[in-house]
Amino acid sequence: MALIRKRRLTNQQTRRIEAQQTRRIDEEDTGDGELREGLIIVHYGRQLLVQQIDSESETTAEALAKLTDPTQTGSTEKTIWRCHTRTNLPMLVTGDRVRFQVNENTELGVITALHPRTSLLTRPDRYHKVKPVAANVDLIVVVFAALPIPSPLLIDRYLVACHQAGIPALLVLGKSDLLTEDDELKTLLAEYHGLGYDTLTLQTDGDLSDLIAKLTDKTVVFVGQSGVGKSSLINALIPDANLKVNIISENSALGQHTTTTTTLLPLPNGGALIDSPGIREFGVWHLTVDAIRQGFIEMYPYYGMCRFRNCLHKNEPGCALSAAAAEGKVLPRRLASLNRLEDEAREADKTS
Ligand SMILES: Nc1nc2c(ncn2[C@@H]2O[C@H](COP(=O)(O)OP(=O)(O)O)[C@@H](O)[C@H]2O)c(=O)[nH]1
Ligand SMILES: [Mg+2]
Ligand SMILES: [Zn+2]
Q1: Nearest by Cα to 135 from 98, 86, 80
Q2: Which of 82, 202, 250, 302 is least buried, going by the fewest C-beta atoms within 10 A?
Q3: Mean pLDDT of 288-308
Q4: Cβ–Cβ under 8 Å, residues 120 and 132
Q5: Residues 164-193 pLDDT 10s
Q6: 290-351, superfamily in CATH?
Q7: Contact 36/99 with Cβ under 8 angstroms?
Q8: Which of 27, 331, 305 is nearest to 153 (CA)?
């Protein structure tokens, strides 16, 4: 992803950016030895753990593939460093790619540069300010299941949030052992597939090879209602995932905060998983009307086609969206979702 983005820059732009970064590093040079390339694998507040990698040009998956599992005992070389960050950098998060230096005496690192991000996941903090939680994620796995009973509206919300973040979604219908022959959830999943979303049906103790194939070499997060089976799936993909998170946190003396850290773990077949309670809250907060419209991709041909500019698409005369729903060109359920989310957004704007 980083490479693709770079190619879009002109050579001149690239040189200018490199010059800026180099200058910043010269200024910040702590005199603590070589410049290293890194991947942030844990962040908790201002404390960060950085996995040293070979080069800036590698993808995160390529970089991780070369490393021995840091949680395996017997690995001799130290490759994970506890770091703090320069105050002139933006708030850094798990998944970020950085340049850093290590003080050989204290074994503490200083992050001196942040490489361009391909994506950034955010969530509101307790003061309703937007807070970054993970960077460079390239796939969001939205999990739902027969139990707890899913809300299609919630799935639509997640999809809007994925669009807003500019990250593709994979819709997973889990706990397939609970599905009946002609389960309406199968129809629901097929509808999303029909809209162009990638979908998968599975059960945690079943064949996960299709899921593994879709995650390979990507940096992914799992989102979805509590109880749908995210942790179970994560543990099936990464044996002892919880234990590994604990080991990494304890090694860094962040142990007491394990439950609130955001951690990156390598996927055994390539790629990485970023997880935290904060990430699981992704997509459930206030969305803007603009983001909501953009998140309903099948409605694009009808936006702006209604007779009245301020049409609310609730059966006003000449409403292009209502007509499309009546003619079966869009799903009435999705139009209802769109209206409901827009109402909610307008209501929130009024009260805030
Ligand atoms: N029937 C069934 N239950 C599952 C499956 N996967 C997980 N569960 C159960 O669903 C419950 C919630 O799972 P958990 O992984 O904690 O969900 P999370 O809250 O999304 O992390 C647990 O009791 C799991 O044992 C599955 O494939 N089928
Ligand atoms: Mg869980
Ligand atoms: Zn309309």
Answers
A1: 98
A2: 250
A3: 95
A4: yes
A5: 999 999 999 999 999 999 999 999 999 999
A6: Probable gtpase engc; domain 3 (1.10.40.50)
A7: yes
A8: 331
Query: Does residue 148 have a cis bond before it (omega within 30 degrees)?
Result: yes
What pTM was computed for the model? 0.88
120-280: what CATH class? alpha beta
Fold of 2-114: OB fold (Dihydrolipoamide Acetyltransferase, E2P) (2.40.50)
Please spell the DSSP secondary structure of 12-35, one letter per residue: HHHHHHHHHHHHHHHHH--SSS--
- Structural tokens at position 161: 């949030």
Is 280 near ligand 1, meaning CB less than 6 Å away?
Answer: no
Average pLDDT over residues 193-206: 98
The verdict on the CB of residue 178 being under 6 Å from ligand 1 is yes
CB 93 within 8 A of CB 133: yes
CA dist., res. 231 & res. 193, Å (int): 24
* 135/276 Cα distance (integer angstroms): 13
157 lines ligand 1 (CB under 6 A): no
- Ligand 2 centroid to residue 189 C-alpha, Å: 22
Nearest of 222, 211, 344 to residue 288 by alpha carbon: 344
Task: Scan for tokens 């309406």, then name that residue.
Answer: 184
